[in-house]
Amino acid sequence: MTSTDTLVLRAAGRPVGRYVTRPELSARLSPRPYLHPVTTLAGTAVTEVSPADHAHHLGVGVAVPDVEGHNFWGGRTFVRGRGPAELDNHGVQRHTGFQLRDPDGFVEELRWTAAGTELLRERRTVAATGLTATAWALDFTFSLTNVTPGPVSIGSPATNGRPGAAYGGFFWRARKEEETPRVFTAGREGETEVHGTRSGWLALAGADWTLVFAGATEETRRDPWFVRAAEYPGVGSSLAHGERLAVAPGGTVVRRIVTVVADGRLRRDEAAALVRKAVGP
């Protein structure tokens, strides 16, 4: 897998992520910019790209399975009454330029196009900040603006008839290990208890690393979490959980997720303390 443009993201003076803006991918994977590898400060990788179980999982980024029927997630499309189907409906997120590009972050413009039409224009703001000697934070904001003359709606397999599959939005594919990662929030424990619920933060802890995801705005915190641990390790924030999200012409959807990337397996109190340090009370 190659790219014509990449940048290295740094926190506390160390390289912690590689951002690929123009990956050379098949149309079926819904080509889009992504972060990979993302590492802890000690250098442990905490992302995967195109793993064997889901070739369309691309590190850290924004992926949506249904934008007016177009697939910006990759892979098969869930069709009501039919199930997962191979369709020629994949879209592309095209990097058009950086408004800001520094070692610790960037502001990027993207165009979401499908079937020769631009549906959404995105502004993506990403920043890396050191927190402690063993933890840093990835601050990821995306705004999607409807540039069509009519309304655009965002859906998910869940809104199309597949219960429990409300994925779509910010998504982090973590590294798969022999042991299933621990999943917990401030008040819940385990994939079954956490998946589909709303909470200020959610932690995914592997063998020697922990990711703590936090909604950094009220609107983001209203989106339920999409969690996978046993099948594969992945966490997302669901834009369309119970119903489709409608975006009026000229309207904009904004979400902000801050992820703490830490060495070691954090306790619940340690995860909460790092979230407060990264996002505030």
The biggest beta sheet reads: 8 strands, antiparallel
Number of helices: 3
- Strands of the biggest beta sheet: in what spatial order? 8-9-10-11-20-16-15-14
Low-confidence blocks of residues: none
How far do the termini sit from each other? 41 Å
Give the overall average pLDDT.
96
Globally, the shape reads globular
**Share of residues in strands:** over 45%
Oligomer state of the chains in this structure:
single chain
Radius of gyration, in Å, reads: 17 Å
Specify the structural class. mainly beta
**SSE string, helices as H and strands as E:** EEEEEEEEEEEEEEHEEHEEEEH
* Helicity range: under 10%
What is the count of β-strands?
20
Description:
- The structure is a single chain.
- With 281 residues, this protein is mainly β.
- Helices cover 7% and strands 47% of the residues.
- The model has no long low-confidence stretch (mean pLDDT 96).
